[in-house]
Design goal:
By secondary structure, this protein is of the alpha/beta class. Helix content is about 35%, strand content about 25%.
Amino acid sequence: MSERVKREPTKLVPVPSTNIIPERDVDKTPILECRHLGIDFGGLTAVNDFNMAIGRTEIAGLIGPNGAGKTTVFNLLTKVYQPTRGTILLGGVDTHSMSTVQVNKAGIARTFQNIRLFANLSVEDNVKLGLHNHIGYGMWTGIFRLPSYWREERIAHERAMELLSIFDMEGLADVKAGSLPYGAQRRLEIVRALATNPSLLLLDEPAAGMNPSETAELMDNIVKIRDTFQIAVLLIEHDMSLVMGICEGICVLNFGQIIAKGTPDEIKNNPEVIKAYLGSRKEG
C-alpha cells in the first residue's frame, strides 16, 4: 500500500437555508438540497424534518445507529419512497413528480447494502446495463444488427472498460459477476452506478465486508472518482475510519431526525453524537 496523502480539512459555509456545503462549491447551486423532508409509515414517523445540502464536488457522510433512517433517506432521494412532506431539489430542480427511473436519468445513482448484481452475466455486461441511459439505438436496430447497433456496442464496450479500469478490473471483464470475491462485487456495483453518468453517487455501506486494506483502497478510489468525474458522493457507512478520513460534511441521524451536522472534527467531538452513536456502540 502506497503512503497515504494527507488531506486538508474542508471549510464548510452556509448556503441560503439551514444547510452547509464546502466553500469551493458555494458559487454553484448544491447538487442536492433536502428541505424539511419526512416520511410516515402508518402511524410511524421514519424520517422527520431532514435538512441537508451537498455541494457539487462534496464527499458527504450520513451516519447514525442501525434503524436511524439512513437507508430510508436514500430511498426517498431515489424515489423508491415518495416523501410524506418536504422538498428534494436536484441541481435546483424539484424532483416531486419524478419516478425512480427519471431521478436516475436526472443524475442520481446508488448502490445497495445488499449487492444487486446480475450474477450470471459477465462483469462487462453488468457495467453495460448501467449505460442504458446513453444507448443510441432502438429495438429494431438491435434486432436486425444494423451498422448503428455495432457502432453503439463498440462505444459501450470502450466505456465499460474505461470505467472498470478505475478499480483495475478490466482484466475481469469476461468473468461472471457472481464468481467474483465479495469485495470485487462491491467495486463492480460502484462501477455500474457510475455508468449511468451521475452527478450524485449514493453509496450504501460500500465498505461492508471489506478488510482494512480493501477499505483503505476504497477510500482512495472514492476520492479518485470525485476528482475524475467532478461529481458529489453521499455515503452511508459504519466504518468511522472511512467516514472521518474522506467525508467533508457529515450528517448524523438518530430516530429519523438530524442531531448534528458539520465537519469530521465537529462531529467526533459533539457530545450528543458521542452519546447517541460514537460512544455507545462498537463500529465494524
